[in-house]
Write a structure and sequence with these properties.
The protein has 190 residues and is mainly alpha-helical. It has two domains: 84 residues, RNA polymerase sigma factor, region 2, helix turn helix motif (Rna Polymerase Sigma Factor, Chain: A, Orthogonal Bundle), CATH 1.10.1740.10; 67 residues, Winged helix-like DNA-binding domain superfamily/Winged helix DNA-binding domain (Arc Repressor Mutant, subunit A), CATH 1.10.10.10. The chain has nine helices and no strands. Helix 7 packs across helix 9. It is elongated and about 55 Å long.
């Protein structure tokens, strides 16, 4: 007789797509909106952290403002694009409004940050290079930094950046060139 081991696994809960969650949240379902937040906030935070010049508190504030706006605007969401795309645009627009309203402060590293920097000074050069790049990125003008982050880190095309930042495609390319040139100069590779 053939012995076989059969394991029964509980079926995993069905994955609810973004469109269904958005529809439910638009009708006031806070649990659906919480799922949207949990699903999309990590990626949006990473984007906002870079756009905010590495200021974690500012990025968190912009992230929260993004989701407040999303809650208010979900009833008008027309499902012409993916929810992730819509949230991404909303986050970028919120960050850019913040950039226009005030110049981002430099990164406040505090005492614990000083410990991290001290440790990094003792590590091999490859780690310090990453820190040098992050610091140089923080010094870029806001529009140039936004174009660099969206193009080189997020993988956006110049056409998408131009639409989102309300500039000509040529301006997007010029800002990217400017950002890269400034980074090379600040990193000593010019």
């Amino acid at each position: 007789m053939l012995d076989t081991l059969v394991t029964a696994t509980a079926p995993s809960p069905p994955v609810v797509d973004d469109a269904a969650l958005a529809r439910a949240a638009a009708e006031g379902d806070t649990r659906a909106f919480e799922r949207i937040y949990r699903r999309h906030s990590p990626r949006l935070y990473a984007l906002l952290w870079r756009l905010c010049g590495g200021n974690a508190a500012r990025a968190e504030d912009v992230l929260q403002e993004t989701f407040i706006q999303a809650w208010r605007k979900l009833p008008q969401f027309r499902f012409e694009s993916a929810l992730a795309t819509w949230l991404h645009r909303l986050a970028v627009n919120t960050a850019l409004m913040e950039l226009r309203a005030a110049t981002f402060e430099s990164l406040d590293i505090g005492e614990s940050g000083m410990d991290v920097l001290a440790e990094m000074a003792e590590t091999p050069r490859c780690h310090a290079t990453g820190m040098d790049l992050e610091r140089a990125l923080l010094t870029l003008p806001p529009r140039a930094r936004a174009v660099l982050v969206l193009h080189d880190i997020e993988g956006w095309k110049h056409q998408e950046i131009a639409v989102e930042l309300q500039m000509a495609v040529g301006s997007s390319k010029a800002q990217l060139h400017r950002a890269r040139s400034l980074l090379r100069t600040r990193l000593g590779d010019a």
